[in-house]
Amino acid sequence: MNLEKKKRYFETDPEVSKTDANQNNNDFEVYNIKINPKSLKRKPSHFKNKNDGKVLKKKFSGKSPINPEKLEKHSRGEGIDHNNVKHPLHAAKLKKRENKLNYAQKQAARSEILLTEQQGSLVVEEGVKTTSISQKTIKESVDIAAATKIFDLKLDFGPYRAKYSRNGRHLLLGSAKGHLAAFDWVTKKLHCEINVMESIHDISWLHVETMIAAAQKEWLYIYDNTGTELHCIKRLDKILRMEFLPYHFLLATVNEYGFMSWLDISIGEIVSHYNNHLGRTSVMTQNPYNATLCLGNSKGVVSLWSPTVKEPLAKILCHKTPLTAITVDNRGMYMATSGVDRSMKIWDIRNLDGPIQDYRLRSAPVDLQFSQKDMLAVGLGEVVEIYSNCCTQTVDRPYLRHRMAKSINNFKFCPYEDVLGIGTSNGFSSIIVPGSGEPNFDALESNPFQTKKQRKEAEVKALLEKIPAELITLNPFDITEVDVPSMKEQMEAKKKLLYLKPKKIDYTPRYKNKGKTNIARKKIIKDATRKEQIEQAIEAKKHLNLPTDQNIPKQSFGVLNRFVPKPKIKK
Amino acid sequence: MSNVKIKVISRNPEDYLRATKRDIHKLPRNYDPSLHPMEAPREYVRALNAVKLERVFAKPFIGNLDGHRDGVSALAKHPSRLAVLASGAFDGEIRIWDLALRKCTRNFVAHEGWVRSLCFTPNGETFVSVGDDKTIKSWKAEIQTPDDEEPINTLLSMSVVSGVTHHKSKPLFATCGEHCQLWEKTRSEPIKVFKWGVDSLHHVAFNLVEENLLAACASDRSIILYDSRESGPLRKVVMELRSNSLAWNPMEAFIFTVANEDYNLYTFDVRKLSHPVNIHVDHTSAVIDVDYAPTGREFVSGSYDKSIRIFESLKGHSRDVYHTKRMQRLTCVKWSLDNKYILSGSDEMNIRMWKARASEKLGVLKPRERTALNYSEALKEKFAHHPQIRRISRHRHVPKHIYNAKKELCTIKEKNKRKEANRRSHSKPGAVPYVSERNKHIVKEDE
């Protein structure tokens, strides 16, 4: 059951790939042998171990088996069946490729042994619930360095929004009353602190921690890490929510009037700008798996948007009441939505048919957030509840509960840390949620211990690999698949040829022959184009193999056939 | 509540930061796919960048060797030393070059009239040259004493000699002219003479694997196969136009490629000469010379249209085209034995050195560089069929005359096709049969 839920939607049959994974456990070796059709049919007898017959007690019994779950994690979908390939050479090539891919998958699964850190956990005695464990208890039982991650900031300027940078090292705070602060929250070193003297609706880190975007009362501003204003983007006005898409270098925004815009921050151009016709929507999140935007409107509909398509890629009626929050997990599998009706639903975002889980809460959630390890934080007024493993099974009580004496504005899980940062009505508080973060980061992807030089290098690399905005689709693996629809389009185009009228040609001779009429020549040319058109249509007909009328056997009435009306022949 | 065991992520910075500034940075990796989202589009962008960079770095021309006072007529590569090249010119001069220094080490007039052909002996100590003066001369490859400058051996042939090739292991070489003749160094008379009709042969080549087999191109448009152990020629195939030169695949004994006057190259299988295995098109004028890469996967051809093309041996169209403003009609091309360079001799007295793979970096590669290149190579292969990537990787700039000639050839081909179709549609079914392109250019095969 668990495995099934983890499947991607381009993998069709879970059973088959499971057996595949088990088969892959058998050790295989790669021999560099020229393959001919004969050798494919023959059983490779000489590959067998010579000691097969003898009874030998081996000290070393080959490579250790791989945990099938780990193998499944690194799977890139099931392979292509090479039995259907007709040519033996291509079949052999395909098989070789499959072997390579399987080998890579295994090596990736085996490399997990090299990971140094372990995931956080909370172990209690049998029968004791973890819900009631307070931050105070946690603080007492963890080491000093970890205990410093629990802290509270009391700030005066009204409800705060908080966002962590991609590597989880830096924190950005923006308040509705204009207070903007950026700091390294681990060392508590302040980068900048300014008051923009305007309301701030949303904030976002850009691709590096030296640039900050703030959606202020009128326009979008970009500041650097000393608080200097770099840009004021007046084309983006009255913005309510922002999301930064790091691999595309796009700052996706939605404004008060329902205009959505994607700003390419590497070249400063607006890639796409259109109205979503949903009215004022302040519930927005991105799907990190495919970089689409999820908007929730007041009618309870969640719609997915990409910059190239001006209509939603998909729409789901999630709740019958206005939505209060949406969140999508890191692997793009689950979406959690909540409505004013105090319900929270978990959806499989790739299937979109019916919620997987439906929870009823004590009050309507203010915010929802998935952590890297799929824990779900739910903000209920002054309480934040964290559910663990709530997508695949229905849980009856939260994993942790934290109560504060101030109302929650928003919260974010810190990437690569067991920390939840909460922006509240009067400040910011950071709490520890054991087991919520990914313990092992990939330094080439995002590195919390990045030096300045590394950051600069990574920036250049990332800019070189900027994904064009056109590639934002529901399935990010579209690009590796065969372009089937365009084949369909080709057929459509051919079909159209059949019913096309010959185009009119405007015949004006280049050189006028004075005194001679060109009527005859005109006719010839017109006839020629018409003939060409007809030929094309015939050709297209041939390609399409359209059924012809004559081949259809008519119902016979015997002698009475003469009374059957004859089809009129058009002249 | 006392028995709570809590573990949270708490990293010691010392484990993640380098100890000293001289150290390298620590880069812990985690290959979990959820940490690397959007794998496919990112790989696509990388492939796009890689293929663009490949075109940016495609600078194949390395340098030229000038010194000849007339057009270069023949080239010969040393069998064991990469830096040694012998070249003959239309004025009878032979030059020995040091390719590493790009300098001529020795030059002398060997023949009256053209130097028709050159070849090294398998040990590399001597080389043989044939000229228009009907002489076959052997020379020392290196000179120690002044005496070495004179030919070791001069053989006088009764008839014209226009090509020479050496047996791979035996002290035996073959010349062609009026007939194909087999010589031994010690004898002044040919040990064997192969005749087949009255034709003049202009190119001969020994097979490199099946060592006793040799093939010659005749001016009566035929390609003739001989066995040096037998008394008569084996087989011949007649084509529509004459073949200018011939190269054996060094890896597959039964495959050879001929450069034909009809702008194409034809790859034949010895076992079935009735039609070619493959036709390599793209040149827009007669192909003069062809030479295989030592891997047998690729070959290079030089043409009268002032361009060099590189073909993959299994493909019909060229992989790359090299040209410069100054390079005139090609007379000879050679692929170096380290599979890295191409040498070309042309009408305007220069020998040019090219890289075999235009964007390859010369010199030693660091391991990181190599893995990066391998990675981008794999990506390019993976996304090779995407329209953008294919367009960029196939894009070549060609001189206007080639561009126009190509367009012209295209219209001619279309015209022929149309004409044939018209004839077919206006005649009795079956009267105008479909002839495949591969069979079109072969007139007959004789045993």
Automatic annotation (TrEMBL), chain A:
Which residue ranges does the record annotate as region Disordered? 1-24, 41-84
Q: Where are the WD repeats?
A: 316-351
Task: Reply yes or no: does the keyword Hydrolase apply.
Answer: no
- Return the SMART domains for the record: BING4CT, WD40
Tell me where in this chain the BING4 C-terminal domain is found. 398-476
Q: Where in the cell is it found?
A: Nucleus, Nucleolus
Q: Where is the composition biased (Basic and acidic residues)?
A: 9-18, 69-84
Provide the coiled-coil residue spans: none
SUPFAM superfamilies associated with the record: WD40 repeat-like
Q: Which UniProt keywords apply?
A: Nucleus, Repeat, WD repeat
Name the record gives this protein: BING4 C-terminal domain-containing protein
Automatic annotation (TrEMBL), chain B:
Keyword Protein transport in record: no
**Composition skew (Basic and acidic residues), residue ranges:** 437-447
Q: Where are the WD repeats?
A: 65-107, 108-140, 280-312, 323-364
Please give the chief subcellular localization of this protein. nucleus
* CDD domains xrefs: WD40 (cd00200)
Residues of the region (Disordered) are 417-447
SUPFAM superfamilies assigned to the protein according to its UniProt record, in alphabetical order = WD40 repeat-like
Subcellular localization(s) per the UniProt record? Nucleus, Nucleolus
Record has Repeat as a keyword: yes
Q: Which terms are listed as keywords in the entry?
A: Nucleus, Repeat, Ribonucleoprotein, WD repeat
Q: Which domain of life is it from?
A: Eukaryota
Q: Pfam families this protein is in?
A: Sof1, WD40
Chain ranges of the Sof1-like protein domain: 356-442
Q: State the family named in the UniProt similarity comment for this chain.
A: Belongs to the WD repeat DCAF13/WDSOF1 family.
Protein name stated in the entry: DDB1- and CUL4-associated factor 13
